## 1
Amino acid sequence: MARGRRAAPPAPIPPPMHDAPTLDAYQGDLLDFAAAPGTGVDDAAVRFRPDGWLLVRDGRIDAVRDADDPPDASWRRHDWRGHLLLPGFIDCHVHAPQLDVIASYGTELLDWLQRYTFPAEARWADTEHARRSARRFVRQLLAHGTTAAMVFPTVHRAGVDALFDAAAEHGMALVAGRVLMDRNCPDALRDDAAAAERDSVALIERWHGRGRAAYALTPRFAATSSDAQLALCGELLRAYAGAHGGLYLQTHLAESRAEVDWIRALHPQARSYLDVYARAGLLGARSVFAHAIWLGAADRAQLAATGCAVAFSPSSNLFLGSGLFDWATTAAAGVSIAVASDVGGGTSLCQLRSAADAYKVLALQGQRLSAWRALYAVTRGAARALRRDAEIGHFDPGATADFVVWSWAADELQQHRVALARSLHERVFAWLTLADQRNVAAVHVAGRRVALDAPPRDD
Ligand code: GUN
Ligand code: ZN
């Protein structure tokens, strides 16, 4: 094992092509969060500035000002009055190759993997296909208002490069890593131990800390990784602990009951599903576990104590019939929660759809998810889960200017409902429940507007 090696130092945001600073002032209804909101609908953590000014200097937030405090003439003005400006959404759990299987009929998790997902992922062995798919995936994330993500590609090393390349083309923050699987999967996707280690080390060296990329060790889940492969992940986490804050770890945890039963049979020595990962040394402040539905109190306490985050994926949990995530109990245990799409188990890349589905999952359990908590969980809260909240997820001065301009209404119904709202929370809640990709007006990554036009012909 290549211990203690260091990836390349992070590249700064590319400087502008000319010497003078680029000064852009965006005027619109600015909304972000100073901190985690509480459970109520009136919350001091909410920062709403109608017709406010978002000042962006060379790709970073310079300042936020009220409507009556405009910048001087040196700032180029962009008039988005009547629109909502939010930090770009962050999706902490999504699968790049699964745009091919999104909305696949009639099955549950374990059969869905075999029937739809593994065949789609095997097609990434063709590097040209992987490149086209990766570029389409990144384009679609951005087109849905998501400007940063933690992503599963496939087991193919060239596909991981393709994904990081596609994100880098847009200057987008991306956390990803080669998927690791050495059992209970088709031969075409199965690792041999040497290749898994060699590829992971090569990819870490290439990508971790390069520009806005970071590397995540990505054992798919405890059913498809042997103890030896999970142990390799633990060793790599330790070996690179000092490199750019350390590597990430992403995997799935306690998603469906059948899956949990299977893990118990495969790992009889473990106290619980989470314990399989704990024994391999995979729990830490940069570990993100998708789903985390079927857990006990000891597991939640352990997740909190080790600083792990969970990626609640409501659209996927409903679509695959996996179960209802217990937000109140998980939050009360002190676990940090991000809301994620989990496409293609989830049925939309739009994080507003994830947030609206999250509300419904909680409603089924007699819980309430305010618009503030929902939006926090796809912006600053998700950034916190990824330990990147110094950089993204809000409009604090110094943050990278990843932000999205949304229309308040994309159709007559939205217009009608939003106009009737009597409070800010009512308005934003109605908006997030009804809005979708049609509401995206403009997307900015590091201060640069993304062209959301038709895809190139060869894609
Ligand atoms: N568990 C293991 N792999 C997957 C996957 O691709 N999607 C979901 N939703 N769960 C998984
Ligand atoms: Zn997943």
## 2
Amino acid sequence: MSDEIKKGLLGIVVDETTVSQVMPDINSLTYRGYAVQDLCEKCIFEEVAYLILNGELPNKKQLKKFIKNERSERSLSKNILSDIQRMPKKAHPMDVIRTAVSLMALEDKDTRDNSPKANMKKAIRIFSKAPTALSAFFRSRKGKKIIKPKKKLTFSENFFYMCFGKVPSKEIIKAFDVSLILYAEHSFNVSTFTARTITSSLSDIHGAITGAIASLKGPLHGGANEEVMHMMKKIKKPENAFKWINKALDKKEVVMGFGHRVYKKGDSRVPTMEKYFKKVAKIKADKKFIKIYDIVKNVMIDKKSIHPNVDYPTGPTYHLMGFDTDFFTPIFVMSRITGWSAHIMEQHAANKLIRPLSKYSGADHRKVMLLNQR
Ligand code: COA
């Protein structure tokens, strides 16, 4: 057995998956065989959620049933809602949603059942309830009354309604749906691998998703979409952008929303998200972020050949839609619950405990001596 260390598991293939395929050479990403760009243009988010969870696109009847099921599971218990209301206003919403999913485990009658049927039920419950938990915190920390979910609204419409009390235009909803489709799944990224690792000890789906949320929070993963917005706010106006980004590169700073462990020639999701970011910018009459976006991107490509990842366009898109910056990664959670759940079920179906080795580099073997005898 080779004891060569592969830090960050770089280049290591650890298992098989049928959920998605990332093909960096041809700049392509497919979910269950379908190109993500195609899914964005032809499907609503619920259809893609069904596809990821079940392996096939739904027919009319299956979609109707899935939508009905999702809408019927949206409500949170009084206990969880009042827990959310009592959470510190300054808490990060990623910590709130991580805790809320953990709380859901305490109430779910199927928590201990890891059968495929129970896991699918729990996946849909977590998926349906996460937006309710997030929007409750979105409003309660501002001292506003919590808005209950509405069954006649789609997943995206309902989230806007619960956050803002109204549903925006069809174009905004489509752009939001597209962002959710693009965020739904991405093979063995760090949070998905975390979820699979937790599952591999035969732990439950609530625990695996709770761990995955903690992993997604990091700025090298999902947290990057928030960092992109912080950067754009620091740049303030397009006139500052060129100087700002050059200075950052001279200081060897990591520019958030750029680079990727797998894609080295560009992230397959960016062209689609960029298209919808530009649509949203037009609707919102934004002249600032759209210009900063292009200037920073051009310098990163020209000077460093580092391309944007999907977090670069989603950051300003969510900002223009009216969401608080610290809600960007939680929105990613709402969507990625589908991908995580599919991987958790796949791991359960063909499980092998994940337990890598390490090379010891600590102190030499020594005898225990009591401190007062030294
Ligand atoms: N800004 C500035 N330099 C960057 C960079 C970025 N965003 N991403 C990579 N680089 C640099 C690295 O520092 C490295 O430089 P070096 O050769 O002088 O050491 C070089 O480009 C190659 O990096 P690479 O090995 O390709 O990166 P990685 O695979 O280890 O890291 C990320 C990938 C995602 C962790 C990294 O690109 C990053 O930190 N990006 C910012 C965070 C982000 O947007 N995350 C969301 C990912 S979807």
